[in-house]
User: Fold fructose-bisphosphatase from Populus alba x Populus x berolinensis.
Amino acid sequence: MQSSTIPTLPTSLFPQKILLFSSKTQSFPSKSSLLAQSCHLFRPKMASLSGFIVRSQTGTSSSGEKGFSTLSEYMGKGGIDVGDELVVLYDHIQYACKRIAALVASPFNSSLSKQSNFAGGDSGSGRDAPKPLDIVSNEIILSSLKNSGKVAVMASEEDDAPVWINDDGPFVVVTDPLDGSRNIDASIPTGTIFGIYRRLVELDHLPQEEKATLNSLQSGAKLVAAGYVLYSSATILCTSFGSGTHAFTLDHSTGDFIQTHIDIKIPPRGQIYSVNDARYFDWPEGLRQYIDTVRQGKGRYPKKYSARYICSLVADFHRTLLYGGVAMNPRDHLRLVYEANPLSFLVEQAGGRGSDGKSRILSMQPVKLHQRLPLFLGSLEDIKELESYGDVQQKVNPGYEV
Ligand SMILES: O=P(O)(O)OC[C@H]1O[C@](O)(COP(=O)(O)O)[C@@H](O)[C@@H]1O
Assistant:
């Protein structure tokens, strides 16, 4: 096994904070449980994982059941044991996402992102001009994947074609490095999305470009793992290895992702729809009828629905996963390979459904890396009800300025 080359994180990235939640709670605890847990807060625990030393200030469960503090511990031999190679890869993904989290929270990110408005123009084209945040995030992820030694190819929203990294890498990574970055100047939440496949060894004999593309176009049904990182008031890494969906919150005092949401179950029915409904007059009749119906509380669930739309996919998805309902973009806008597939994997593992309005996302065979499609993610009963309206995919896509 190749040894890891992750550098030590500068401590200044993670200023000391008092940790107020337990690694074993699914939601934030009551005052009394906080008191009970406080005896664990200052009992440092060291664990050695795949050559990494992690320090956690949280205690393990007092209920006697087996507990895991960090994502690396959860994945490792004492946890669900996903295998050393995937543990190493995740350590590098965590490191990359911590760097991106620091970047999006930095006072300097605004000047970086502004350069994207001038892409190709004079202001942004100088050799030393700052790069847009999504490009910087892409470079951060690529460098971490290279350092891991575990990745054959990375396919990213930011690159026209997949990047071949390492002939022996066991994994293929698809990613949208920083989704929602158009809102970054307003400090709106953003996110990284990723999916992980096994390298198709039967394609090893093909020319590099060809095998890079074919490895990246695997169907979502073959995902080994997927996840997203939400950069918001908390930095949350939510992931699945095919046995449930779990979320880990960045503890700024230690730099560890601590288990905070175990085995998330999306409610079978929610009361929230999430869509850019300024597009109402471009929608097909079926979608208008569906939204009109649930707004009035006249659907299969006789409650009036509420609307929530951040316009940042990871944030809208994260809320939907926790509260239920449906998050959608009915036009051909979001991407199958590195957005729809990983998020559908996560929502299915939580008991929900990912659909293009007609078919299950994970059953589709991608034909192009940047293939776009209508996307509906959410509670099982809500998505089924929406699909029953038949005509929910927006065909007109005139292009919108904001
Ligand atoms: O403009 P719409 O149709 O509301 O789309 C918004 C969606 O587009 C995204 O901004 C992604 O689009 P980009 O990749 O072009 O930035 C998502 O974060 C968001 O959910």
